[in-house]
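Two entries, shown back to back:
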Amino acid sequence: MMQHSVDNVAILRQAIDSAIESLGGPIHKTITWYMNSKGVFSDSKKIDIDSFYSNLKELVGPGADLIMEETWQHLQKQGFAGHNFEPRSSPLEKIQKVMKIGESA
């Protein structure tokens, strides 16, 4: 069970990285540096998605939601789709739900 959790974290980190990379090199470096300075990316085996989102919102404002949407799209490509969500679930809520579900999958 613990192995799935670590795998999910790696997949989530990869999805976040892909979403940030799609914005371009300088923005990717800025966001990565900022997250490292806040300790969000300090442990490669876990990530607090709530902390990531709040720090992202602090850094890029409304653009944070676009980055979360892009992250969600990357996760869907990895097979994290098909769960039942409320129609108005935010990308953050969807990511939180699949990361919890994925731990027991």
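entry 2 starts here
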Amino acid sequence: MLLTVLKSKLHRVKVTDANINYIGSITIDGNWMDAAGIIDGEQVHVVDVTNGARIITYAIRGKRGSKEVCLNGAAARLVSVGDIVIIIAYAQITPEEAKTFKPTVVIP
């Protein structure tokens, strides 16, 4: 059996752009992705603290140091520039691993 646990999160980052014409996903500052251990193409959940929307998508590495958080495609309809979001990545681990596992929480 595997448990799905919080692997990492970017806590309370500001949406800088919303691009309806992009194919999909969320673009995130590369430095923040590295800090949280999120890789290109990894599934993430985006929780909009401002309006309550919850989105499942995948991460795309943005320019390092840009502080970019851009929801793309259909997800762009669910957020507004300036919204505060939490970006969450999960992992599946064994119950034994879960006893000592510590998630990474990044507060930019």
